[in-house]
What we know:
The chain is α/β, with parallel strands linked by helices and 191 residues long.
Amino acid sequence: MEKNNQMVCAIVAVGPDNVIGIDGRMPWHSKQDFYHFKKLTTENPCIFGKTTFFNMPKHPLSKRPNIVCSSKYNNEFDKQDVYCASSLENALKQCVTYNNVFVCGGVALYKYAFDQDLIDITYLTQIISPALAAEIADNPDKYTRFPFDIKAYFNSSKWVAEKIEYPSGVLPVENPNIMARFFKYIRDRKY
Length: 191
């Protein structure tokens, strides 16, 4: 697929042991991560796999185009102000007028986007929760994980890391048992 100047961004929150979900939803509630996600994606297209889209607590997301990527193309979404694409490449073609497009999951969509070298920037929220880490350790098979080890993948020379810091008082007050840290990984295209 030929690239224009558009930046294709993955946005993902990862908990302990590369966990991103349980039963089609996130296994934590982080006001700070929700704020971060909304700040980055508002006014930009968000591309979801069908299962991820329908398992969101609120859909479609307001103030941004929602595109459901499904190999079983179904134009039923178009009637709900949600667009459908038969592939990630077709979804990206629908977004050519935007500078930033966000790939928002699930696992298969993330894996495909990274395997096809389509991601320019990854916005990663690291969720730290000792209680969740203990729950995952006790029930490891209940959880869905990111398709590869985050630390190993982004610690390569192909990515330039930046920590994202918000000024004091900007982020909402968080549950004291959860901590969210934000990172931006920019793909070095010489690799």
